[in-house]
Amino acid sequence: MSNQQPLELLEGEVLIDDVFVVRETRYGLFTSTTKNGRAMLTGADRDNVEMMTRWHLKCEQEGWPEGSVSVGRTSTVSGKL
């Protein structure tokens, strides 16, 4: 994605697993961003966002578990009703 820019760490911030950070948004949610600037996950609990970001990145590297990926479908009806 061409709009990604390297992440600039804020004062006191450290990279988690040397890969991503979790920041609190102005609305009280938490969002994770990779050090390459790719927005990842958003959630209500910092620990859960950190845990699921780790899982998501692991699955991107090793492959997604069977049944965890859904296939997009269409709601268009073809033919005459």
The ordered string of helix (H) and strand (E) elements is EEEH
Structural class: alpha+beta
Q: Which parts are unreliable, with pLDDT below 50 for 5 consecutive residues or more?
A: none
Overall number of strands: 3
Strand line-up across the major sheet: 1-2-3
Could you walk me through the main structural features you see in this protein, from its secondary elements to its overall organization?
It is a single chain. The protein has 81 residues and is an alpha+beta fold. It has one helix spanning 46-62; strands spanning 20-24, 30-34, 39-43. It has a three-stranded antiparallel sheet.
What is the compact description of this entry?
This protein is of the alpha+beta class and 81 residues long. It has one helix at 46-62; strands spanning 20-24, 30-34, 39-43. It has a 3-stranded antiparallel beta sheet with strand order 1-2-3.
Question: Top keywords for this entry?
Answer:
81 residues; alpha+beta; 1 helix; 3 strands; 21% helix
Topology:
Layout: E1 20-24, E2 30-34, E3 39-43, H1 46-62
